[in-house]
Amino acid sequence: MQETGSPLSNSKSLPERREAVTDQQVLIVGGGHVGLSFALLLAHHGIASTLLEKNRYPTISPTDDRTRSHYLDSRNTALSRRTVQIYQEIGLWDELQSHACRIDSVQISEQGSFGRAQLNKVEEKVESFGQVIENAWLGRKLLLAAQQSPLITLIDNASVNAVAQQVDGVMLSFSNDDAAENEQQLQASVLVACDGRDSTVRQLLNIGTTTYDYQQTAIVGVVETDRPHEHVAIERFSPAGPLAVLPLTDPEGDGNDKYQHGYRRSVVWVCPTGEETKYLEDDAQFLQTLQQAFGQRAGTFVAAGRRGAYPLSRVLADKQVEGRCVIMGNAAHTLHPVAGQGFNLCMRDAHVLAQMMSAQVLKGEDIGNAQLLKRYEKARQTDQKRVIRFCDAVVHGFTHPNPAIKLARNMALLAFDKLPNIKPLVATYAMGLKS
Ligand SMILES: Cc1cc2nc3c(=O)[nH]c(=O)nc-3n(C[C@H](O)[C@H](O)[C@H](O)COP(=O)(O)OP(=O)(O)OC[C@H]3O[C@@H](n4cnc5c(N)ncnc54)[C@H](O)[C@@H]3O)c2cc1C
């Protein structure tokens, strides 16, 4: 089923812009999913950007549709309804959705407890709660769109050496092994750092961070079950940590066709750091652990693909604006993946900043103006703080071993399932439709 514009969205895809509406330029450092998406959002508004990426990008042919080198070997991201709307707005969703699987309902429960809750799209009167997309496909389509946009200049294999703030712009020095002249400089009205959790730009600007190590590691992979997923996302809390099993597409359709041994699902399993090796190396033990944690909620786990491990920490930049520079994406806030909120929050930041810059261009004003950037930082605070608090509350609330707290959270899950007014509100926030 295709994700179409919802009544909550008045966003429409506009014709793609081929020419810049201003001479002002944006410099983006970091071409991960956030940096590329931000460049495409700017291009949609007719604002040109130059994007510097540390790694070398692969060569992608527009006609080559291969996505999976291994069908069981991919990371996946749960996109909220709002993120889907943003991609619709810039005309990318039609390309993305062939490898995205919608979420019709969300089940939340705890191993060894009676409390459970369920969000259902029919009850909440929504088309879906979001979509699970393969990271490889998302990255590939974003890169291809950026490569094809006349308003985006991509420089890969480039590392940033220095950032200098000027009265009317910002100057960046970088090294690029591909260029004859190794050390190069670029100037722009504004610089947006999307260079990830350990952001070099953030360090060059002397912006500190508040960091918290969860002492947990996420094991991520694709599994197969003997039952179709029926578009259900299952969030389960076990004594080892939170666990999510998400629906995935199969190569032919929407995930309800059998693949090799069963039906593909994406797994995020969080365990205490130090215990990851046994879950990474031994397929049989991993499948057995999942089975114990889940019972038959997802059916029988029959196959597991290669898994990756991600040590989890929360990293929050002490500020997100310094002069003509903005810190965005994981460089601004790296969160626990428990509720699948990190990338979705980044996309809302990117969307708001692109809109504010576009409005500034229409007024004929400076897009790197300090007041504008500070207004952006302030405008995003409520949404960011709410998501950060929510993720932390879920992680700490559900891993606390105290029996009284365990009872309280079971009661809370039961109450959540029964109280009529809470579910729509939580669903709205989870879908990223309220900020
Ligand atoms: C296990 C796990 C599961 C997750 N699941 C979800 C989910 O379901 N939903 C969700 O919303 N979020 C999810 N997230 C969060 C999401 O992955 C991140 O929010 C998102 O990837 C951040 O993207 P980014 O582009 O900001 O950073 P990154 O992906 O880290 O990209 C940074 C880019 O900058 C480049 N770079 C770094 N340094 C430099 C430099 N000096 N110069 C130039 N380039 C540089 C890097 O090469 C990279 O390309 C999950 C996270 C994890 C760990």
Automatic annotation (TrEMBL):
<dbReference type="GO" id="GO:0071949">
    <property type="term" value="F:FAD binding"/>
</dbReference>
<dbReference type="InterPro" id="IPR010971">
    <property type="entry name" value="UbiH/COQ6"/>
</dbReference>
<keyword id="KW-0830">Ubiquinone</keyword>
<dbReference type="InterPro" id="IPR051205">
    <property type="entry name" value="UbiH/COQ6_monooxygenase"/>
</dbReference>
<dbReference type="InterPro" id="IPR036188">
    <property type="entry name" value="FAD/NAD-bd_sf"/>
</dbReference>
<keyword id="KW-0285">Flavoprotein</keyword>
<dbReference type="GO" id="GO:0008681">
    <property type="term" value="F:2-octaprenyl-6-methoxyphenol hydroxylase activity"/>
</dbReference>
<comment type="pathway">
    <text>Cofactor biosynthesis; ubiquinone biosynthesis.</text>
</comment>
<feature type="domain" description="FAD-binding">
    <location>
        <begin position="24"/>
        <end position="390"/>
    </location>
</feature>
<comment type="similarity">
    <text>Belongs to the UbiH/COQ6 family.</text>
</comment>
<dbReference type="InterPro" id="IPR002938">
    <property type="entry name" value="FAD-bd"/>
</dbReference>
<protein>
    <submittedName>
        <fullName>2-octaprenyl-6-methoxyphenol hydroxylase</fullName>
    </submittedName>
</protein>
<keyword id="KW-0560">Oxidoreductase</keyword>
<dbReference type="Pfam" id="PF01494">
    <property type="entry name" value="FAD_binding_3"/>
</dbReference>
<dbReference type="GO" id="GO:0006744">
    <property type="term" value="P:ubiquinone biosynthetic process"/>
</dbReference>
<keyword id="KW-0503">Monooxygenase</keyword>
<keyword id="KW-0274">FAD</keyword>
